[in-house]
Specification:
Length: 135
């Protein structure tokens, strides 16, 4: 059973999701999804904030991380999170299309990736897949 699924069933609460993206529009979109669907979604704007948050609170079910961010990009953030939390599913968000990138992030420990721009149904599909929910 996936970690996200087991945490969701264990707690019998909506999954807790962390979203890390330097672009405000993406953070706002995820906040709206959380409010509309009753999902506990926290948004942060940097990889540094995400690593600090995960180390302080490891109760997240799923993380979405933007690949390209200033200072600490998504690949470095993924590496640091996976080092201490290898079981935590991480989905990389990217504006790049192509299988080579997908293979690279999956090989680096990401559970999956999603290509920007994305639609609500794509986000919910990823949440449902990794958290065993039906939104």
């Amino acid at each position: 059973m996936s970690t996200c699924l087991s945490r969701t069933l264990e707690l019998k609460k909506p999954p807790r999701i962390l979203v890390v993206d330097d672009y405000e529009l993406v953070r706002t979109m995820f906040e709206k999804i959380g409010r509309r669907k009753g999902i506990d979604i926290k948004v942060l704007k940097s990889g540094q904030e995400a690593v600090k948050e995960i180390n302080a609170d490891s109760g997240y079910s799923l993380i979405f991380i933007d690949l390209k961010m200033p200072y600490m990009g998504g690949a470095e953030t993924l590496d640091l999170i996976k080092k201490d939390h290898p079981e935590l599913p991480v989905i990389i968000m990217t504006g790049s299309r192509g299988t080579s990138l997908a293979e690279k992030v999956i090989g680096a420990g990401a559970a999956d990736f999603i290509t920007k721009p994305f639609e609500l149904r794509e986000i919910l599909k990823k949440i449902n897949k990794y958290c065993g929910t039906r939104y």
